[in-house]
Design a protein that fits this description.
single chain, about 375 residues, alpha/beta, TIM Barrel, nine-stranded mixed beta sheet, two-stranded parallel sheet, 12 helices, about 35% helix, globular, binds iron/sulfur cluster
Length: about 375
């Protein structure tokens, strides 16, 4: 099977929303070991250096605007979040937070968020090992409190997967809490300095547990339940419909841009020190003008998995922190995921045909909501 976007039958997924990440600060109150905490102030200042008027002008002409608050830890600068929510006419608001400071934003603003992503890596032992002691408890408590205050939007558990994880155990655990609508994960690849240790884990431990998780997801589908495993939903919907998810599927560069606190516009919110990602300045350009300036190219443009993988990640594609060899390793693991889901296409179609689940129930994300789709 070819999933090349040029292959016959692949449809362009209609663009749903344009996503603007707003970095509210470069500071973070945690020091997770895969990230290291705050950005240096010269790369991402702790305070915003442009005005709300600058942001309004920059975003003029954007239809179906999605604003995602990002950091550092965005809740270290709640007044900027409040100001943006009051002054910018967005269709959707999203926040990615470590979940330890939710008291800093008043309830009314939480209730206006369409998507809240809380960082949590799975069971307590794994989360606390990498994010700090007591973090798991705080994040679960934050999820509970959001629900108690009446938050009914999409609550996503956002995991960073390291060699400490068992993807089956940890995703099932997070879903079992009955707090999160969706779980999504990103592999701690490329930033991980220890490629030699990570790669054997990827194929010897992650891949078999991933297959087990897909088997569970399919069996639940046949019983009429769609587990909120974000990458499975997004990819399965695209497989069934023959859709091209975009390159990359997170939208970076073509549907999503980021505004740094210093006013720089970036193709990807984490690429704060990468010259290829610097597209312009909020004061001298508009969002729409800066789209499509940085693209994913070869080999992804001629790859058989291109319509679904889309190059996976614009940052990893350009930075190649693990070199070409490491890039190909990640291609291999992405293909494991896509192949395993594709092999289950007849079962998915059976579940839909027999009415156990509807095709629409798999349609995720409903707009560019910051999930990467490809782990
Ligand atoms: S990242 Fe690898 S698998 Fe994905 S489209 Fe590019 S070449 Fe293909
Ligand atoms: S998936 Fe990659 S390109 Fe997309 S937002 Fe994340 S780091 Fe940036």
């Amino acid at each position: 099977m070819s999933f090349n976007p040029d292959a016959e039958g692949f449809l362009e997924r209609p663009r749903r929303g344009l996503l603007c990440y707003v970095l509210t600060t470069g500071k973070c109150n945690l020091r997770c070991d895969y990230c290291g905490g705050s950005f240096p102030n010269h790369l991402v200042p702790s305070n915003v250096k442009y005005t709300i008027r600058d942001l309004q002008d920059f975003l003029s002409g954007v239809d179906e605007l999605v604003i995602a608050f990002y950091g550092g830890e965005p809740l270290l600068n709640p007044s900027w979040i409040v100001k943006v929510m009051e002054k910018i006419d967005a269709k959707h608001f999203v926040i990615q937070t470590n979940g330890t400071l939710i008291d800093r934003l008043p309830r009314d603003y939480w209730l206006q968020m369409d998507v809240v992503l809380l960082s949590i890596d799975g069971v307590e032992e794994v989360t606390d090992k990498h994010r700090g002691r007591g973090v798991y408890g705080k994040v679960v408590e934050a999820a509970r409190r959001l629900r108690e205050m009446g938050y009914e939007g999409d609550l996503i558990a956002r995991m960073t997967l390291t060699e400490s994880n068992d993807v089956y155990r940890d995703v099932v655990h997070l879903l079992s809490l009955s707090l999160f609508d969706h779980v999504h994960w990103q592999l701690n690849a490329v930033w991980n300095p220890n490629m030699k240790r990570f790669v054997p884990w990827l194929f010897n431990y992650y891949a078999p547990e991933l297959r087990r998780l897909i088997d569970l997801w399919i069996s639940k589908l046949l019983e009429g339940e769609v587990l909120g495993v974000a990458p499975f939903k997004a990819l399965s919907y695209a497989i069934i419909r023959g859709l091209n998810l975009g390159a990359p599927p997170c939208g970076a560069g073509w549907g999503a841009l980021a505004v740094n606190t210093n006013g720089e516009v970036l193709a990807c919110p984490i690429a704060v020190d990468a010259s290829w990602a610097r597209l312009g300045d909020i004061k001298t350009s508009t969002f729409v003008d800066l789209l499509e300036k940085v693209r994913i190219g070869f080999p992804c443009t001629s790859c058989d998995y291109g319509a679904l993988c889309g190059g996976r990640c614009l940052y990893a594609y350009h930075e190649r922190l693990w070199g070409d060899e490491g890039f190909k390793v990640l291609c291999r693991i992405t293909k494991v995921l896509i192949d395993q889901l594709y092999d289950n296409k007849p079962k998915m179609e059976k579940a839909i045909k027999e009415g156990s689940v509807s095709l629409e129930a798999l349609d995720y994300p409903p707009f560019l909501n910051t999930i990467e789709v490809i782990p």
